[in-house]
Amino acid sequence: MLFKKILITCMLCLLTAGTVDSADIQPIKIGGLFAESGKVAFVGTASRLVAEMTLKEINDNGGILGRPVKMVVYDTESDPNVALRMARELVEKDDVLAIIGPTSTGSGMAIKKYTEEQGIPTIMTVGGDPVIAGGKFGPYTWTFKVPQRSSVAVRKIYQYLQSKGVSSVALLTATDGFGQDGLRHLKSLAGEYGMTVTAEETMDPQAMDFSAQAFKLSMAQPQAVIIWTIGPAGAVATKNFSNLPGEKPLLVQCHGQPGPKFLELAGQAAEGVVMPGTKIMAPGYLADDDPQKPVILKFIDDYTAQGYDKEFPLNTHSGYAFDAITLLKAGLEKAGTPERAALRDSLEQLQGVVGVSGVFSLTPEDHNGLGTDSMMVLEVKDGAYRPAE
């Protein structure tokens, strides 16, 4: 009888202990900054959905370090000032461990000085280089980003043009931060690949006609014209060039453009246009031994199963939030503790982390970790993307 009482007591203690431990598990709290309204909401809203989808799967499989992950999300409204205000909320009110986002280069630069000073690991989903460029752009000790650097995309373009015997290019670049970042690299890297820049024009990414710029650039008779912007402006410019009389230069879009929307807006004018993009844009062409192939195919299955593709068709931006959280998870597991400094140190040592956008290998000098081999040059043919020949 005594043994039975002792056994029952021990079982109750074990059950009680299990309940207490479970109740005491605090979630790892992270922040999410996504442009869910304003001019880049088409990227930001989809990124938030992908981030939530990715975290749900992680939590369904035991979380990270045995703890669930909770994301506190704010809409940056596509406004750098709002992005900074929301970053302060995440740090000073919500006490997050790390931040995923924001969506645009301008917002990334707006928050960077603050997050660096506060020591917050921030994995951005922005296209431009300045957030991790150092020098006049400020330190990036705590700042990381998942989309390929603009400089990497420029190198991919120039490598392709060089292989096609192209040696003269004209540039049409947006007046925003992303466009000017692209212009900087397009000019500085041209000589390395034997390219001569014959003419330059700028474009307001919110405008709806660039016929004048197209005419001026075509008069310089370049072999190719590189258009550096995201959103509808790229398709508008493509149509403007298509409407010019006579022989036309090869049109090249930037790495932020590949997606169904460009094909829809540019229509027949898109035929023959080339652009660098992530492998998600042509998964059917990936080799079976490509380490990204299973990751990309599963991501596409999960994305479409959620029905996100109906409102936000898959495009080159679609996997950025997935990649950011994948790096966060790998960094925390390597650190072994949900502590900011330990996470930061681990992030810049990650090697061979397979994501949708590439295989990430970071260093203290390179807080992106992707090279030109993470991209493919795409060509529009018969209204679809395929690897350029």
Automatic annotation (TrEMBL):
Keyword Lipid metabolism in the entry? The reply is no
Signal peptide span per the entry? 1-22
Q: Does the keyword Electron transport apply?
A: no
What's the domain of life for this entry? Bacteria
Which CDD domains does the entry mention?
Answer: PBP1_ABC_RPA1789-like
Q: What's in the keyword line of the UniProt record?
A: Amino-acid transport, Signal, Transport
Q: Report domain Leucine-binding protein positions.
A: 27-383
Q: Do you know which InterPro entries this protein is assigned to?
A: BCAA_transport, Leu-bd, Leu_Ile_Val-bd, Peripla_BP_I
Recorded family membership: Belongs to the leucine-binding protein family.
Cite the PANTHER family for this sequence: BLR7848 PROTEIN (PTHR30483:SF38), LEUCINE-SPECIFIC-BINDING PROTEIN (PTHR30483)
What name does the UniProt record give this protein?
ABC transporter substrate-binding protein
